TrEMBL record:
It holds the Pfam family ABC_membrane. One of its GO terms (cellular component) is plasma membrane. The chain crosses the membrane at residues 50-71, 128-145, 151-168, 237-259. Residues 24-294 form the ABC transmembrane type-1 domain. Signal peptide: none annotated. Its main location: membrane. It is found in: Cell membrane. This is ABC transporter ATP-binding protein/permease. It is a multi-pass membrane protein. InterPro entries: AAA+_ATPase (IPR003593), ABC1_TM_dom (IPR011527), ABC1_TM_sf (IPR036640), ABC_transporter-like_ATP-bd (IPR003439), ABC_transporter-like_CS (IPR017871), ABC_transporter_C-like (IPR050173), P-loop_NTPase (IPR027417).
Length: 502
């Protein structure tokens, strides 16, 4: 299989080489046609040259699309593989780092990182490699058809242009970084605004948020304008290079080669056409370098996330108390209560192994987070999370939590469970945490946002389904069911305090 792949790559490269070599032929043929035409007013002697010119054009037009199809297939296969690898790495990064990232910014960095890698492959392989071959072909053609003097002149001009453009590319990097940061800021703001769209529209305060986000759009406009100016300077150098190249070659022929009869009109035309093609290929290659530099800058934010090492979480008094209680055989259910901001959710994150390099508890855990995670797909997929599970058993579990009359395993759920009520989402998410048979069940505010009756019904479901071998830690502000727990841990400003029943 590996040999076949190598043979395929070699064949593609060989066809590419032939196509690029064919590009230099028309310049030479046109020069020869001009020489023949200058010596005769008839077409005699030009038939063969015109036939070769026509065949060269037909070959390029007919083979290029076929080559591009197979070439792009290989390029996009590489991009697809890399995209999967990057997502796999990203989704396994320490949870502590994701908590510090805004959702919009994270999505933007991932999309930009994948896009920059695709651009890198497309530029370096689809454009860069053909342009390098094209550049070498035209360099050889200039030496062969126009001589070393013309070639030396061309190289001096191109080298000067390369130095100027490289300087411009380096000066562009801070501008690219500022544009990316401005994009991330806008996405963060948009995610924040649209996540609270009901509140905004119900209070008729759209204008207030339009004013709040306006400075971010203005900042983005300013950064993109400065980047566009640097691009125009870059393009201006390319135009100046082409003009200077043509004038220099004409001067070389008129003041040096023509007087000593080392060249004729056809040779001048050939030199001008070849130098124009070489300049175009060279400008394209420098543009590839510019875009590669920009894609590297775009990829840097995602690379920073992927290279981030997780930070350890300190063992707090609350964590020590929870681990102490979990170690007791007679303590099966623990409730953690207290004011917001005391570290209760951090406790669950730590027990779940999301904040520490190594697990702090020997018990395998499953987590019902406060924000119900439901994704677009079937009920079966949302419950099984890709694992093979018995459909009849899952249906019976749906019946136990009172959802079988409303949902089947084949029912399609919309993004974030938009076609479910708040209580239905909480039940479904609890069932997902429960059915994977964890030794430690972690619940973060399971009844938050529910009315008292719906919350009471959910508590009954939770305690009725809890397996004998499963322990449970629940963070809650709902005091109505605390008497059902084996242990209640209370937090206040000074730390863990004894629980005082109402």
């Amino acid at each position: 299989m590996l040999k076949v792949t190598h043979l395929k790559y070699f064949l593609l490269f060989f066809i590419l080489l032939l196509l690029k070599a064919n590009l230099a032929l028309p310049s030479y043929l046109i020069g020869q046609i001009i020489n023949v035409a200058s010596q005769s007013i008839s077409l005699e002697g030009m038939e063969t040259l015109l036939t070769y010119l026509l065949l060269s054009t037909v070959v390029t037009i007919s083979i290029s699309p076929i080559f591009t199809y197979f070439f792009e297939q290989e390029v996009q296969l590489n991009v697809e593989t890399k995209s999967r690898i990057l997502f796999s790495q990203l989704i396994r990064k320490p949870f502590s780092h994701f908590k510090r990232l805004e959702i919009g910014s994270l999505a933007s960095k991932f999309e930009r990182g994948i896009g920059s890698y695709e651009q890198f492959i497309n530029l370096s392989v689809s454009r860069g490699l053909p342009l390098v071959i094209e550049l070498l072909v035209f360099c050889g053609a200039i030496v062969l058809f126009s001589g070393w003097g013309t070639f030396a002149l061309v190289i001096v001009i191109l080298a000067t242009a390369a130095l100027i453009k490289t300087l411009i590319i380096r000066l562009r990097r801070p501008h690219i970084r500022r544009v990316n940061e401005a994009e991330d800021e806008i996405l963060d703001q948009l995610v924040g605004v649209f996540s609270g769209i009901r509140t905004i529209q119900s209070n008729r305060v759209e204008g207030f948020f339009e004013k709040r986000i306006a400075p971010f759009f203005e900042h983005y406009r300013q950064t993109t304008v400065s980047l566009a100016v640097s691009r125009s300077v870059f393009d201006g150098v390319a135009i100046a290079t082409h003009s200077l190249m043509s004038l220099s070659i004409i001067a070389l022929f008129i003041f040096y080669l023509f007087p000593v009869q080392h060249a004729d009109a056809g040779a001048l035309v050939t030199a001008l056409l070849l130098s124009a093609s070489l300049t175009r290929a060279f400008a394209g290659l420098l543009d590839v370098y510019r875009l590669l530099d920009q894609s590297q800058e775009d990829f840097s934010a995602l690379k920073e996330i992927l290279s981030h090492k997780g930070e350890g979480s300190e063992v707090s008094e609350l964590l020590s108390k929870a681990l102490e209680e979990l170690a007791k055989p007679n303590v099966k259910t623990i409730a953690v209560i207290g004011k917001s901001g005391q570290g209760k959710t951090i406790l669950l994150d730590t027990l779940a192994g999301l904040l520490t390099p190594k697990p702090v508890s020997p018990l395998s855990s499953n987590y019902l987070e406060q924000n119900n995670f439901v994704f677009s797909g079937s009920v079966y997929d949302n419950l099984s999370l890709g694992k093979e599970m018995d459909s009849d058993w899952l249906t019976s579990q749906l019946d136990k939590i009172g959802l079988s009359s409303r949902l089947s395993l084949d029912s399609e759920l919309h993004g974030n469970g938009q076609n479910l009520s708040g209580g239905e989402k909480r039940r479904l998410c609890f069932l997902r945490a429960y059915i994977h048979s964890p030794e430690l069940l972690l619940l973060d505010e399971p009844t938050t946002g529910l009315d008292s009756q719906t919350g009471h019904d959910l508590w009954k479901v939770i305690f009725s389904l809890l397996e004998p071998q499963t322990k449970m830690v629940v963070v809650t502000h709902d005091n109505s069911y605390l008497d059902h727990f084996d242990k209640v841990i209370t937090l206040d400003e000074v730390g863990v305090v004894p629980y005082q029943p109402p």
